[in-house]
Write a structure and sequence with these properties.
Layout (H helix, E strand, L loop, with lengths): L3 H12 L5 E8 L6 E8 L2 E8 L2 H18 L1
Antiparallel strand pairs: 1-2, 2-3
Helix pairs in contact: 1-2
């Protein structure tokens, strides 16, 4: 599986805008069944959102969505 967080950072480096990417994280659910949500913000606009059983899974899913958003526009 591709590391979309690295791919996203590499893409932003080519644009010279890595500092404009921020992450927000949330947790929900019971302690033993946590659901994590990650949101990728670029210039304070949501460009990716992902969920997963761990923070890293959620971030990976959000990064994939963000990269797709940036490369399609």
């Amino acid at each position: 599986m591709a590391d979309f967080v690295v791919l996203l950072n590499n893409h932003l480096q080519t644009l010279g805008t890595t500092r404009e990417l921020r992450w927000q994280f949330e947790e929900s659910g019971l302690k033993h069944q946590r659901m994590h949500t990650a949101v990728a913000l670029y210039y304070d606009n949501e460009i990716g959102k992902g969920t997963g059983n761990s923070k890293s899974q959620a971030k990976l899913a959000a990064a994939a969505q963000a990269l797709n958003h940036l490369t399609q526009n």
